[in-house]
Sequence to fold (366 residues):
Amino acid sequence: MAVLASVVLVGLLVAGCDSDSPDTAAPPTSRTGGSEGTTTSTLPAPGHFVGGWAGEKEIWGLTSEPCPRPDSDKARCGVVSRTADNGASWTRVARLDVGTTNDGTAASVTGVHFADPQHGWVFNRNLFATFNGGRRWVPVELGSPVVAVEATETTAYALVGSCGYGVGNCDAPMRLYEGTVATGRWRFLNLGFELPPTDVGNIIVSRSGIYAVVVRGLEQVFLARTGSARFERRSLPCPRALVAPIQGQEGLVAACRPAATTGPVELQTSSDGGRTWAVVWQHAFSSPVSTLAVAGSATVIGLENGDVIRSVDNGMNFTAVLQAGAAPSMRFSDAERGTLLAGSPGERQLYRTSDGGATWRAVPPP
Fold:
């Protein structure tokens, strides 16, 4: 039976400062690759983002600032800001009474996701929701840590671990939740089998369905829901697969990363929701693949060393388009618009593209 978890809208409000007017009531085929080219975008500008999210018109930034306490004079708290002009000006929305250190030792938030301008979440060890554009935040008790949050226009999804403090300290299966964006009401999804105990995973939203990848070491569990059916377990084409949607289309891609850093990466694609896969290209890169996006006819790849490269000829050639910080993460909202975060925790830089990853612009922090 579905277990329901509701957001309780009581006096426990996490936002410390509001910048807006008083809020109103809110419910809660195969080819082998070739050469790489030269850089075309500007060098990164200094930044100090913890997390970021870009909607159709707005960008939401999560930063941190000192918030000394009697037991810790070096404590830092998360601050949520938004911009409607690519960072030329920012509006401070709220400060959260929770940290932003992603070390698994304390309550924290490092990720941001908005379903629309009013409804969004910040998450990591903890999960908080807003129903009024970020002015106020309420805690959502689903468990800890909250590994991933994604949403469609009406429905949200979360992967939640059962882990104590410390990375990988998990003693019970990961759980998948489904929530209603407008009301903030969540329910546990009974898959009919248990997921591995882990704190690693991600959720993929595409035109063809909702997908999740749960990772424990070399074990990967791939879940798929297409149409109105329940989530079911399907097979990925390889171990160490990095899965992403094909923006504007029905398909998925999976980058099969080698065990050795010098081996080639193989890109496979699926047009039937991950039931079958076919090899598109192979290519050896100078650094391990950290993130992947397919936007229209372009494949954009971020490497762990910070290089961001792009191919428009099915992997025959890649051109460097940006040198960002280490371990970039990237997401596209459509075939043209995307964002990229890169750098060390707490000091990340945020970039945005509006031409399918051909050029990137650094977003100044608040």
Notes: The chain has no helices and 30 strands. The domain at 4-17+32-363 is CATH 2.130.10.10 (Methylamine Dehydrogenase; Chain H). The longest strand covers residues 170-180. The two ends are 45 Å apart (CA to CA).
